[in-house]
Amino acid sequence: DSGVTQTPKHLITATGQRVTLRCSPRSGDLSVYWYQQSLDQGLQFLIQYYNGEERAKGNILERFSAQQFPDLHSELNLSSLELGDSALYFCASSVVNDEQFFGPGTRLTVL
Amino acid sequence: QQQVKQSPQSLIVQKGGISIINCAYENTAFDYFPWYQQFPGKGPALLIAIRPDVSEKKEGRFTISFNKSAKQFSLHIMDSQPGDSATYFCAASTLRGGGNKLTFGTGTQLKVEL
């Protein structure tokens, strides 16, 4: 157990809908990262937040957004969902910019 | 420029043997190279990581070898066990510049047979 928690574990929704994925980092970690894992794209970095501020950005779609709250938990919002958004979404955390510890993931299925 | 190439895609090793997974990168700005292990239905777990100022790092049965001039690094798993059967990912990032955006290889499915 990495100490990173993610909810929900599974999410099934329809195209065009909007969902929110939640992540709580390990105690003491200030950075939160979001990754997408799919069969065709592999593990892809989406975005990093550090202490509430955006720190680094990957190829995150404009339909996706994230934020980190004062209590350091983070949410990833996915809107106007498409079939191709079906994937595993992982959150990771680190103290600052160092070793990243991954959560168990949220499996999103878009029907 | 950002790609990390990983090989082989899959690997079968006998129990007690050595598993070797290789990765190559192009971006010379990369300065952090971790390896992750992932079991089905689980998140990636950090195994071991190396910075480019050393050529080798060992933790238990896991060793990273790093060749800066060739822009290659590899994971060696000594005395491989059936419990090591998992998917292994190499990754790379640039810690300078504020963020730690990991670029992952495509993964290697390792099966250790009795």
SSE inventory with pairings:
The complex is a heterodimer of chains A (about 110) and B (about 110).
Chain A: E1 5-7, E2 10-13, E3 19-24, E4 31-38, E5 42-50, E6 53-57, E7 64-68, E8 74-78, E9 87-94, E10 101-102, E11 106-110
Parallel strand pairs in A: 2-11
Antiparallel strand pairs in A: 1-3, 3-8, 4-5, 4-9, 5-6, 7-8, 9-10, 9-11
Chain B: E1 4-7, E2 10-14, E3 19-25, E4 33-38, E5 45-50, E6 56-59, E7 62-67, E8 72-77, E9 86-92, E10 103-104, E11 108-113
Parallel strand pairs in B: 2-11
Antiparallel strand pairs in B: 1-3, 3-8, 4-5, 4-9, 6-7, 7-8, 9-10, 9-11
Give the overall form of chain A: globular
Strand content of chain A: over 45%
Straight-line distance between termini of chain A: 31 Å
Structural Rg of chain A: 13 Å
Q: How many runs of DSSP E, i.e. beta strands of chain B?
A: 11
- C-alpha Rg of chain B, in Å? 14 Å
